[in-house]
Inverse folding.
């Protein structure tokens, strides 16, 4: 499609982890520092992103589109969109956060990190371990020391579901 | 298990590794970003999760990021105290947190904290022998002064350390000062009792992690030429107090006394010129990184806030005038606490409420959710991990 002011809009293909392809305008991906550098330096038209699930990529592209349409008049609407955007299961939110960090989309990264922080704020140690699939590497002595020192750490929100 | 958690501190290249849902694929940077948005009590839990997280949370780089973030949104801390033997609430009616110096009693100090929306953070009690007063800093730490001497507390971690005794006469709130220098992440405590003190002035300074209980005072020979009323205020490496010549009439101010931390010298600051009644000065405080003098009109109906815009040439500017007409003026217990984004936070102690004063629209907005909280002192405090080395 030709436009008198911007010339022909460049099209770019992003390839998600499961080989699904997403075709979008190059101007959209420039919000990602990583992709911007790739496009500028290498003049590529297709970028493989094997580490990002297609499902995650769909979400991020949705954000990029909304963010590109952001004007002073629809600020409120965008804020609501952001709130809804992170209103997903924690597992998915972490996927998005990791991907956004990799792609270096700074504004969204801030928002995602805050959302993750809000979600884990009141969780107990055991719940956090389960959510992040971490097994304690402390000795049983150290572990019981923690329980003595900060019993409240092992209380609180025991809900380890990632919702 | 080891390898799983080790990845937290690995470089960002780990994000290219295969995806598993866990922090293991997160770079140290992103873990730091997320953790730095959490309050100290949540970090207390996370440090028990695994060794890598424990190391990350005590990393100086992490601590400074966390401090930078939490100082953007300080908490409001309420302090209430009661003498345990008399079991009677010792609410003071002056600006100062003053309690009768009964030696043979203990004082229970209840501290609770909320954020600006009124959501509670913590609630705990400390017990001191004898009486105790409080010196605020607006940083992470609070200093207590009383029969036991000086003690310092980080309310976020609940760490409490009793300091070494001063060589001079027992300290009081009057003539003491406690402050925080952000650039150096350093706290400074000064005990300068004024003309009745032959030993001059004593200073203690410390940074994060320093073993505070072993810290000693530095005796400075400079002598303060005035009686100092209330606690001092630290602005730009200078402490300021209200100074009086007459010890028995401390409502009349004769000077603003300054103590230069670099030169270790006392000096005085020229007061604002014009129609200025020294008896009407309520207090000194710091706002927008400047020294402010809070002044009440004769009928208590207006509050003027003067700012020392240029401390070298003593240029004072009457920056704000607040009409206090909507409050019960007979009790006149209204003190400004802070200035944020065009609003001044006011402590209306007599009505147990906090109000935001909108400078541009000249209107008040009350912070709700404070429930039936009562306090003898309330101020701002940054949530943080500052360690007293105990």
């Amino acid at each position: 499609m030709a436009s008198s002011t911007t010339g022909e809009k460049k099209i770019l293909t992003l390839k998600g982890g499961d080989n699904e392809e997403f075709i979008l305008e190059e101007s959209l991906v420039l919000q990602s520092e990583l992709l911007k550098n790739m496009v500028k330096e290498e003049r590529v038209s297709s970028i493989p992103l094997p580490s990002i699930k297609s499902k995650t990529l769909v979400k991020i592209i949705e954000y990029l589109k909304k963010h590109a349409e952001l004007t002073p008049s629809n600020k409120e609407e965008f804020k609501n969109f952001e709130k809804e955007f992170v209103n997903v299961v924690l597992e998915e939110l972490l996927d998005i956060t990791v991907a956004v960090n990799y792609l270096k989309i700074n504004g969204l990264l801030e928002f995602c990190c805050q959302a993750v922080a809000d979600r884990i704020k009141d969780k107990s140690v055991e719940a956090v371990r389960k959510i992040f699939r971490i097994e304690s590497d402390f000795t049983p002595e150290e572990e019981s020391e923690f329980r003595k020192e900060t019993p409240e750490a092992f209380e609180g929100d025991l809900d380890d579901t990632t919702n | 298990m080891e390898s799983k958690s080790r990845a937290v501190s690995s470089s960002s290249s780990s994000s290219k590794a295969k995806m598993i849902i866990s922090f293991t694929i997160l770079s140290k940077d992103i873990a730091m970003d997320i953790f730095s948005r959490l309050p100290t009590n949540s970090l207390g839990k996370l440090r028990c999760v695994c060794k890598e997280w424990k190391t990350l949370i005590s990393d100086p780089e992490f601590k400074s990021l966390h401090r930078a973030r939490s100082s953007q949104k300080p908490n409001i801390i309420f302090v209430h105290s009661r003498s345990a033997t008399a079991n009677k609430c010792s609410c003071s009616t002056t600006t100062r947190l003053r309690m009768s110096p009964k030696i043979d009693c203990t004082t229970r100090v209840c501290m609770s904290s909320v954020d600006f929306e009124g959501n509670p953070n913590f609630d705990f009690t400390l017990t001191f022998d004898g009486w105790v007063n409080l010196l605020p800093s607006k940083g992470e730490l609070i200093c207590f002064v009383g029969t036991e001497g000086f003690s310092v507390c980080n309310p976020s971690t609940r760490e409490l350390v009793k300091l070494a005794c001063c060589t001079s006469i027992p300290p009081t709130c009057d003539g003491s000062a406690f402050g925080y220098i952000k650039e150096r992440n350093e706290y400074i405590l000064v005990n300068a009792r004024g003309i009745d003190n032959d030993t001059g002035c004593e200073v203690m300074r410390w940074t994060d992690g320093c073993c505070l209980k072993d810290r000693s005072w530095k005796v400075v020979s400079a002598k303060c030429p005035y009686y100092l009323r209330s606690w001092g205020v630290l602005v730009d490496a200078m402490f300021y107090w209200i100074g009086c010549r007459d010890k028995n009439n401390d409502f009349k101010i004769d000077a603003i006394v300054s103590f230069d931390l670099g030169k270790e010298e006392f000096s005085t600051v020229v007061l604002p010129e014009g129609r200025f009644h020294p008896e009407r000065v309520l207090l000194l405080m710091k706002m927008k990184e400047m020294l402010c003098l809070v002044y009440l009109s004769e009928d208590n109906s207006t509050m003027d806030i003067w700012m020392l815009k240029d401390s070298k040439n003593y240029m004072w500017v009457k920056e704000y005038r607040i009409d206090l007409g909507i409050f019960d003026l007979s009790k006149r217990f209204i003190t400004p606490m802070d200035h944020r984004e065009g609003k001044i936070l006011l402590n209306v102690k007599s009505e147990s409420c906090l109000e935001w004063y909108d400078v541009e629209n000249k209107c008040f907005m009350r912070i709700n959710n404070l429930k039936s909280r009562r306090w003898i002192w309330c101020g701002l405090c940054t949530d943080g991990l500052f360690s007293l080395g105990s």
Summary: The first strand of chain A starts at residue 11 and ends at 15. The longest helix of chain A spans residues 54-68.
